[in-house]
Amino acid sequence: MRAAVTSGVEAIAVVDRDEAAGPGPGEVVVAPEAVGICGSDYHFFLGELSDAAGGSQFPRIQGHEVGARIVAVGPGCREQLQPGVRVAIWPLQACGDCYPCSVGRPNTCDNFRLIGIHEDGGLQQRLVTGQDQVFPIDVEQPAVAALVEPLSIAVRAVVRARLEEGERAVIFGAGPIGQCIALAAIDLGADVLLVDPQERRLELARELGVAETVPWTDAGTVIEAVRAWSGPSGPPVGFDATGAPAAVRAMVDVLASAGRAVQVGMSGHEVALRIGSLTEKELDLLGVSCCDHAEFGRATRLAERRAAQLQRLVSHEFPLERAPEAIRFAIDNPTEVMKVVIVGE
Ligand SMILES: [Zn+2]
Ligand SMILES: [Zn+2]
To answer: Helices 293-305 and 176-188: crossing angle, nearest 10°?
Structure first.
């Protein structure tokens, strides 16, 4: 079979590989049909992930946003899993023994392993995985199954935010994760305002049903615009999907007292916050990693309801043979690319 193997920093090639044996008991073999490429793939490819986050684990077949079809089912799998069934893959495997696992937070497991980062992922023609990792999904488009993974981060984010119907939430960043948070929030019945420097991203958000958008110019102007929408005390919930210090700071500054600030965007930057924002306003600062099993199931149902909107996030498709070009294209064209998807057979 063919596989896109990342053999070192900025070194990727499509090569012949032996298929893994299987499926063993409790395992399925799937054929990836669509694999999304995202920011964490760029970080891995460029050697920017810390070792703790799974960096420098070469050689590796990347691809953690995977829509696939089941091709073989091992003994002991649940009945729902049959050859031909389309699935989304939950990439997380947790140890079950560490502190976060013991308190029901396996998505922050000290020893967690992600398919496509710590183990070989979807950029190959066949993948063997455990039955708990696959979620049957009823959608026409394979790319929508691949987008369940980024959508699951958004589901985790609205869960962490305790976001409720009718609440107002400001989202910084209209890339794929920001757009997914907007969809998850709208699906809950929340009112959303999205902030981004790029007008074409805001335009896409409006087409997907986001009622209010504000261009990022500078923090003062944006905070004024958000308060004009929310009322002078600010909205109760904010999400940062940028990892940019200025946006994180604006989120903390704009929120209402007793509000919830949710950090979703990854970055290695530091940010200076006015300490009074926490003591005077008693904000909850909440971080988001990936999601747990139940939240991935929720994301799968959400993707079925919002399939047409999710499909619109796909800006570019490349076949597996051109995966190396695709990842470089995504890194080199950040304004043009929303979501690059590698399509399989
Ligand atoms: Zn991703
Ligand atoms: Zn653990």
So the answer is: 80
- Comparing C-alpha atoms, which of 66, 63, 71 is closest to residue 23? 71
Is 133:93 a contact under the CB 8 Å cutoff? yes
pLDDT score recorded for residue 345? 65
| Three-state DSSP state, 53 | helix
- How far, in Å, from the CA of 77 to the mean position of ligand 2? 24
Q: Give 41 Cα–ligand 1 centroid separation in angstroms.
A: 7
Residue in the structure block whose two tokens are 């497991």: 109
The pLDDT assigned to 48 comes to 86
Tokens of 293: 């099993």
Residues near 123 by Cβ (< 8 Å), separated by ≥ 6? 3, 4, 32, 35, 61, 62, 63, 116, 320, 323, 342
Report residue 222's pLDDT band, with 50, 70 and 90 as the boundaries: very high
| Cα of 290 from ligand 2 centre, angstroms | 14
* pLDDT tens-digit readout, 77-107: 999 999 999 999 999 999 999 999 999 999 9
Q: Residue type for 232, please?
A: P
φ, ψ (nearest 5 deg) of residue 188: -80, -10
Q: How far is the CA of 287 from the centre of ligand 2 (A)?
A: 18
Total-model pTM: 0.96
Name the pairing type of β-strands 127-130 and 27-37. antiparallel
Q: Determine the Cα–Cα distance for residues 94 and 96; give it in Å rounded to an integer.
A: 6
Domains and their CATH numbers in the chain:
2-147+313-343 (3.90.180.10), 153-287 (3.40.50.720)
Tokens (6 digits) for 88:
């989304």
